[in-house]
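job 3f2a | input accepted
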Amino acid sequence: MNQLNKNKRRPKIVVIGGGTGLPVILKSLKEKDSDVTAVVTVADDGGSSGALRKSFNAVPPGDLRNVLIALSEIPELQKEIFQYRFKSQDEALSGHTIGNLIIQATSDMKGNIYDAIQLLATMMHVKGHVYPAAEEPLVLHARYMDGTTESGESRIPKSGKMIDYVAVSCAEGRKPVHASRKVISAIMDADMVVLGPGSLFTSILPNLMIPDIGEALMNTEANVVYISNIMTQLGETEGLSDADHLRVLHKHLGGKFVDIAITNIGLVPETYIDEEPNDEYLLQVEHDFKGLQDEVPLIISDNFLELLPRGVYHNGEKVAEEIFRTAFNSQRKVKQFFDNR
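job 3f2a | predicted structure (341 res):
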């Protein structure tokens, strides 16, 4: 594909992941002149999503809900209603958000999660496309470094052991796992595919371990970008540098498929880490520039920090600007240039 021309069309950007980091990037990308598609993990089994999944044998709605809100252009009051969470004393509705209940009800009405999300995306004036990674709930399985195993996205990080490898299976039976409709075509037609930010083993890899998604990432002509996490996570990435995160991704798919790493070099103040109430995060991810050079052809490093009262986040506007600029100005598969020097 020739260099993207601003007068011809908007770059197609596919973002894959889940958790709290993904909506931050999507909300900022929405403001860019790009065609954005979000592919969202369906392996969550905790909190409100886990309870609805168990009760209805359904795809967990929480990550999908947050992505719909991030890309929606409905008024803020309507977003607040959609995101309202019932209090713990509300008995049967304790901990559930209205949005999760609406997604579950729409899925029941339409008969599947894919059609439900497309209907809600239209109702919520979503700018872009939102697809579940798969159309049925998946179970995440982990093998630890000591050879022991565990299953369940919410249980895996609680063992206190280092994770070696993860895989996914269908929640029911031994059916093969397949990507949702339009996910593979979106990846293959994209100008850029973005992974993260998000929990490495429980938000990003559950999507990549769906066989046809992993295969598409290995074969797409789009540049594949990884947004490195800012902080290490308890039960997942203790002691891992930004280069180590990439090594884990490449190990899982059996080859180097990431072309560009976006990594933070801003320093999180120690006082902020000490005072941070979120016990999920530990220390800042170490920046290993030489290690990154061994894994990817192009590294984009800057101070991408945004320190908020509820946690350490990427500055969505700065990251989105880098993604958009790179997608717009670079040819597909930047690594081909490096491979053929």
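job 3f2a | Confidence is low (pLDDT under 50) at residues 1-7, 336-341.
job 3f2a | closed
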